[in-house]
Amino acid sequence: MKNINAIDFLQYLKNNHNLLYNDYKDYEYSGEFDGTCDYCKKDVFFKIISKRYVNGIFDDSYEFPIFHTLQLKCPKCLRIIIKQTVKIKLEEIYNSKDELMESTINFDDEEYENEEFIRKYKYLIFEILSIPTSEIEESLENIPQKYISLRDSVSEAIFAMNHNKNISATIMFRRAIQIIAKEILGAQGKSLYGQLEWLKINENKLKIDLSEIFHEHTKLIKDIGNQGAHPEEDIELQNFSSNDVNSLHDLFLIIIFEIFVKPEKLKQIKEELKNSRKIQ
Length: 280
What we know:
The protein has 280 residues and is α+β, with helices and mostly antiparallel strands. The chain folds into two domains: 6-132, no CATH class; 136-277, Four Helix Bundle (Hemerythrin (Met), subunit A) (Up-down Bundle). It has helices spanning 6-16, 136-140, 148-162, 166-184, 192-201, 212-229, 242-277, and strands at residues 18-23, 32-36, 43-55, 66-73, 80-94, 100-104, 118-132. Strands 1, 2, 3, 4, 5, 6 and 7 form a seven-stranded antiparallel beta sheet that branches.
């Protein structure tokens, strides 16, 4: 199979991919990377978690491009994104009047081998692909395997969220709250409102203390989920942004922590303390 030549590859990049960097200073990936987050759509300086690179090979033995694969973390929404970029090195030829004569990626032009011409090197970086990593496994890791319906609902909510189906994600998070209230905690009542109120004054099936954080967050997710299922008259409330759904997701993870992680952690701490102090 024949390799593409450098000139054709550069033209392909210009026609099909987003130009991220265009300057005379060679760009090095250090601790941060300037870009736009695929999740929250904010212009940010990503934190570079990991990076690796490979050199491209062309028929004309051109020393570039350099392909970088970066694992980035958004400082705004804290999501992880995988980006692949390619860096191209251009040689620009200027005359004594500082007029651009030629821009080339071939460095052996004998035509300009004299003092009348000035050589400058420009670096271009194109984005080849950007993949927002799925956080389904991370969101499920603290949910016990036996709660199949809850895990399925959360998986569907995260899938919808990652594909910008914000109303669907909102409804599925509300559904997950109802599964927690009714199936897992054993709340009584026909509506989610009634079930959440029941949990405030009755002992639940897991026999855990539900904090104010739990009650506040479940009510908020319920109310927002209702807005998704039943369109509001207020036009401004009829659509959901990525920020809305990301915040909903974060609130939901706090609820998961409150009912599955925190009680076990407190139990473990008490047992370890009793054992270390020999208290029965």
